[in-house]
Design goal:
globular; 15 strands; alpha+beta; Transferase(Phosphotransferase), domain 1
Length: 306
């Protein structure tokens, strides 16, 4: 862990995030996503390595737990995230570079990976062959299966947290992750899952299980393969509730067992969902098969007019 004495932090009261920190060893160029003003794109000054730097987000913390020291809790969240992520060793999980410290502030530094996120609406993702989409899902399920074996639940499976490059998926952002058996604590209310991908029981149960990741993953898989969202959501910032489910078994029926597992993975009751290992294996087998795309369908001979 590197330490310097250069002052860095400047709060931005307008955006609710941070202005670009001035770090001794990293040059930061700007935020990656306006929705996450504490995540910056940059490079290591000496090596030139492209990196992503995540800072604490004190104003976000203060809005949820105003009685706590926002910078202290924000730094604790980053330290916890780094402690989890540095223990993981899987080809489809991003490994951190370091937990960088400057004065009293911490920054989580990771390599910059991927060309895009796994957004079903993204033009690049939308044009991918179905076989490649299945392979990307299989890789992500494999990463989640590994997390489960390591006693970990990611709790924030969504397109923005899966980076894609050269037909490879990389799972990132363990800010909401929890060790199995851990009960909810103050950090859970701060580093919580994105509301519209969180499993229903995540809002109510004191114990988190890997089935929460199955729910979020199944929702992502359904939308990626069909182009349609499986649910219509309301109450985004309160208790997650659903209007009538939008998903249809017929939309994924052609995937056979894999389609059935995806539908079961979105069950409201966590006890009715399949294991992530089942989904990973089914997707691996499915991605190995070939599905003709519309442009690759054999042409039908024109009728002969007599």
């Amino acid at each position: 862990m590197a330490e310097t004495e250069t002052p860095t932090r400047v709060q931005d009261g307008i955006s609710g995030g941070l202005k670009i920190p001035q770090l001794a060893e990293y040059e930061l160029r700007g935020i990656i996503n306006p929705d996450h003003p504490n995540v910056f794109l940059g490079r290591h000054k000496e090596s030139g390595l492209e990196v992503v730097v995540k800072a604490a987000r004190p104003i976000f913390v203060k809005s949820i737990k105003p009685e706590l020291d926002p910078m202290l809790v924000g730094n604790i969240c980053l330290c916890y995230e780094h402690a989890i992520q540095e223990t993981l060793d899987h080809p489809n999980i991003l490994s951190p570079i370091e937990l960088y410290r400057q004065n009293d502030d911490f920054y989580l530094v990771t390599p910059r990976v991927g060309e895009t996120d796994l957004y079903p609406q993204d033009s690049y993702i939308r044009k991918l062959p179905e076989q490649v989409k299945l392979s990307l899902l299989a890789q992500t399920a494999s990463a989640l299966s590994y997390c489960k074996k390591e006693g970990l639940v990611h709790l924030d499976i969504k397109p923005a947290n899966i980076r894609v490059e050269n037909k490879k998926a990389t799972l990132i952002d363990f800010g909401a992750a929890r060790r199995l058996g851990e009960r909810h604590c103050v950090i859970d209310k701060i580093a919580m899952s994105t509301p519209d991908v969180a499993a229903p029981e995540h809002r109510f149960d004191s114990i988190i299980t890997p089935s929460a990741d199955v729910f979020s993953f199944a929702c992502l898989a359904y939308e990626l393969l069909t182009g349609h969202k499986p649910f219509e959501y309301i109450d985004h910032f309160e208790v997650l509730r659903y209007k009538s489910p939008l998903h249809d078994r017929k939309a994924v029926a052609r995937f056979g067992k894999t389609g059935e597992l995806i539908i079961k993975g979105m069950a409201y009751k966590h006890t009715e969902r399949p294991e992530i290992e089942e989904l990973a294996e089914a997707l691996r087998e499915q991605s190995a098969r070939y599905y003709p795309q519309p442009s690759e369908q054999p042409s039908v001979p024109s009728p002969v007019l007599v």
